[in-house]
Design brief:
heterotrimer; A mainly alpha (about 240); B alpha/beta (about 300); C mainly alpha (about 300); A: about 240 residues; mainly alpha; about 0% strand; C: about 300 residues
Chain lengths: ~240, ~300, ~300
């Protein structure tokens, strides 16, 4: 058993994530994206603006964060809510190992339900420009994992992690991000969009250096995971609700 | 032989003091943590499980702190009160997962041993979502025992168990205690604690009210009379003779035979009774203390 | 330990072969013998309670925070618009509302979606998750009545959220001397639209919340449904307009409540277009009407079916 990861927790995570409707939603979201891509391709052929609009507006802004939210909250929030996380915590395992194992499952979900579908959708929309799909896939991967780290941190800090996460997504990233340009310095979506810009040669985001975006993403991932582990070390769990 | 030491521990949250300056030592054997609901039992057990930090004071297991210390779980087994488990796993998978997380060399064998101990071998391949409440408690116990811990903490373990399961669990706890493990369980039901634990810690409204053998505690309360039932060969004579002694506060002849006696000084009474009986040639058939039970200790303490 | 005085004396009476007697003292418990209200008043009071609960009234202070903030945020832009209209009407030469009544909900849809997504689980999922529904079903109110009243409470609450800023804009418009007859007509049309929008959103949200019982998951699922549907539809509409296939965009508009109701208002009341491809032909308009009816009635039916399976 390796030091940093626990195969048992990874296995448990994979099983718990497909409980009830969460699993259905995780499958539906990428299917919607791919179906839309096919429809757009059928309507307008290989149109650059249309494709960009679809993959950015729906894929990167909506689908990727929602997949991250569903996956991460499904891994941590229910167990914290009903107290069954005590079975994971009452073991001589480093808390960081627990977090790393769960985030690994979340990252795998991002790959399967966000990054690869975005890549496929990109290929459907622009078969003439492979860099397009590739760029968006990469952006989806980086952004998705960063979102997972953020939502993991929220899950251990508050019982209302999902609602707060949604408000962050809708208000900060969605509403304000569309209105105010300054938001781009503190927005995971904009950072991953910058990554897409560089690889696919687009202009989704203005005036955001790659040298800022990539370290920012990495920082969020590491800091989020570390903070989650820290919180788990000092986790309060009394017998009563 | 492990020992949990709680030293001047208080725990408060805003205006509510859940635990108020409690000092106790839990040693090998079975100890019952007794107290009414809301007395702070769960809070104390949470602190002993390393899931809550005391606001002041220290909680240690063999000198090591329990808070922020994962390695202590090698010696500690927990049976929490909450019912939630990993419903989608079978009983066996759950216990094996726990064994793996403990880093045991042979998780499968350890799991089988633990499952056999709680007599769930027949049901181990069914999903936990199909288990009854008592079965869930038992599989929780298996998960706590799988790594052979020196210390076992159980929060209200008898909740929801039927009489047969309760007897079985009591037997199991007694065995664990006899093996030298430190077993602590909490309860607000007196009969349960009475039958398993001789050593009790009583917690009332966050304060540590009493500690030790419950019979001994009872005897410490000398200002409240002890009650006995005597069956003798001549009740009326015996009663009148006993009333003459200073240690006896009251005697009543029961209509079904026998004497109900109230003694205020147990020490003197136990010395005086055989002497008086022999002096007046009365044969004592039965001398039974009627309230040497946790009930009276408890209600006395709670009535404060 | 009973003292002798309270006990009866069965042994003495055994000689006279009468059964032991006992006494139950009257401690003041009285059964209720007065008039009982029927199912109607019960349903009405349940409706009122549900409506109040969505805004946190009658619940803890914490549950008031989100709905009140959302209500405030809904009113704020309307207030600003009214302020500008009243003050700068002559300056800017305005003769109608800056943002049309029917367009306003579409612009503020995120707030409305968050409201519905957070309150539907509070009204619907909570009873199912913690099984308090068995208490409701043990009362005179029938199962179907419970479902309909819950849905009605949610719809009314959402209607208030959508309608309040419209009322504000209407009053502001009157104060700014906009022609009352025209404004009243537009306002009433928008109110009808608001009611239908509230019904559609509440129906969908309640249906989703009734299936995904966990609160966190229910909130996410409702947001997913509302947000993804709108984003997909608006993308298709934008592309369809550019590509010249307007019909595709019009059909797509059926699949999100916001575009559906806006399209309906464009067709029925000649409201200004807020989507790229609103319905243009009569056939499409009828289709929009039918789709609205289907959404509302379908979600009611779905809910009734779902609750039929709940054990009481």
């Amino acid at each position: 058993m390796s030091e940093m990861l626990s195969p048992t927790i990874v296995r448990l995570g994979v099983r718990s994530i497909f409980g009830r409707w969460r699993g259905a939603l995780l499958f539906v979201l990428p299917l919607v994206l791919i179906a839309l891509s096919i429809l757009v391709r059928a309507l307008v052929g290989q149109d650059a603006t249309g494709a960009e609009h679809t993959l950015y507006g729906l894929g990167l802004v909506v689908i990727v964060p929602l997949v991250a939210l569903l996956a991460t909250s499904g891994l941590l929030a229910p167990e914290i809510d009903d107290g069954s996380i005590s079975y994971l915590l009452a073991k001589p395992i480093s808390r960081y190992t627990i977090v790393a194992s769960k985030l690994l499952v979340a990252a795998a979900c991002i790959v399967v339900f966000a990054a690869v579908p975005v890549l496929l959708a990109g290929l459907v929309l622009r078969t003439d420009d492979l860099g397009f799909g590739l760029g968006f896939g990469l952006g989806a991967l980086a952004g998705g994992i960063a979102y997972c780290a953020v939502f993991a941190m929220l899950s251990v800090m508050t019982r209302h992690a999902v609602v707060i996460g949604l408000i962050y997504l809708l208000v900060w990233e969605g509403l304000l991000g569309g209105l105010l340009d300054g938001v781009r310095w503190l927005s995971v979506t904009r950072w991953s969009a910058e990554l897409v810009d560089r690889v696919a040669g687009l202009e989704l985001v203005d005036d955001l250096p790659l040298a800022y975006a990539v370290p920012a993403l990495a920082l969020v991932i590491v800091a989020g995971a570390w903070q989650t582990g820290r919180r788990l070390r000092a986790f309060n769990l009394t017998g009563d609700e | 032989m492990s020992e949990i030491r709680i030293d001047h521990v208080s725990r408060w949250y805003r205006n509510v003091v859940a635990v108020n300056d409690v000092t106790m030592t839990i040693g090998p054997g079975v100890t019952g943590l007794l107290g009414p609901n809301g007395a702070g039992k769960s809070t104390l057990i949470a602190m002993m499980s390393g899931f809550l930090a005391p606001s002041t004071g220290t909680v240690t297991l063999d000198g090591e702190p329990l808070w922020r210390n994962e390695q202590v779980y090698r010696k500690l087994g927990l049976v929490p009160e909450r019912e939630a488990l990993f419903d989608y796993l079978t009983g066996r998978q759950f216990v094996v997962a726990n064994a793996e997380l403990h880093g045991l060399a042979d998780p499968g064998a350890a799991a089988q041993r633990a499952i056999a101990l709680i007599e769930m071998t027949d049901a181990q391949d069914r999903e936990i979502s199909t288990y009854s409440k008592g079965m869930r408690q038992r599989i929780k116990m298996a998960s706590a025992l799988v790594h052979d811990p020196a210390v076992l903490l159980l929060d209200e373990p008898f909740n929801g168990m039927d009489p047969r399961q309760r007897m079985h669990l009591m037997e199991l706890l007694r065995t664990m205690g006899a093996e030298g493990r430190t077993v602590l369980f909490s309860s607000h039901i007196l009969e349960e604690v009475e039958q398993v634990a001789r050593q009790i810690e009583v917690v009332v409204a966050g304060r540590h009210a009493a500690s030790g053998d419950f019979g001994a505690i009872r005897r410490l309360m000398t200002d409240r009379p002890n009650r006995f039932v005597l069956r003798t060969s001549d009740d009326r004579l015996m009663a009148s003779v006993l009333l003459a002694d200073a240690s006896v506060r009251g005697a009543r002849l029961r209509s079904e035979g026998g004497i109900e006696l109230e003694a205020s000084d147990f020490g003197r009474f136990s010395e005086v009774l055989p002497r008086l009986a022999r002096a007046h040639a009365v044969r004592l058939h039965e001398v039974t203390p009627t309230d040497e039970s946790l009930e009276s200790v408890f209600s006395y303490l709670v009535a404060q | 330990m009973s003292s002798p005085s309270e006990r009866t004396e069965p042994l003495q009476q055994a000689e006279s072969s009468t059964l032991p007697t006992g006494v139950i003292h009257d401690l003041g418990y009285r059964p209720y013998g007065g008039p009982r209200l029927g199912e109607g008043p019960v349903a009405w009071s349940f409706f009122k309670t549900g409506l109040r609960n969505t805004y946190g009234l009658g619940r803890s202070a914490r549950s008031k925070v989100l709905p009140m903030i959302l209500l405030g945020l809904m009113l704020l832009p309307a207030l600003i618009l009214v302020g500008v209209l009243v003050q700068a009407r002559n300056l800017l030469d305005l003769d109608e509302q800056i943002v049309a009544y029917s367009t306003y909900p579409l612009t503020t849809q995120l707030l409305i979606s968050v409201f519905v997504a957070s309150q539907a689980p509070a009204l619907i999922s909570r009873d199912l998750r913690f099984r308090t529904i068995t208490l409701y079903l043990a009362r005179p109110m029938r199962r179907a009545a419970y479902v309909l009243v819950r849905l009605a409470s949610l719809t009314a609450a959402t209607f208030l959220l959508i309608g309040a800023p419209l009322l504000l804009m209407y009053v502001g418009g009157l104060l700014a001397d906009l022609p009352p007859g025209r404004e009243t007509g537009r306002f009433l049309g928008a109110i009808v639209g608001a009611a239908l929008l509230a019904a559609c959103l509440s129906g969908l949200a309640a249906l989703v919340a009734a299936f995904t019982i966990r609160r966190g998951l229910a909130v996410t699922a409702v947001i997913v449904v509302l947000l993804v549907s709108y984003t997909v539809v608006s993308t298709i509409q934008g592309i369809a307009l550019e590509a010249g296939h307007d019909v595709v965009g019009e059909v797509a508009g059926l699949f999100s409540p916001y575009t559906l109701i806006n399209g309906l208002q464009v067709y029925l009341f000649d409201s200004p277009d807020a989507t790229p491809t609103p319905p243009t032909s009569d056939a499409m308009g009828i289709l929009y009407v039918a789709a609205t009816a289907l959404t509302v009635l379908g979600s009611i039916g779905g809910l009734l079916l779902r609750y039929r399976k709940v054990q009481s």
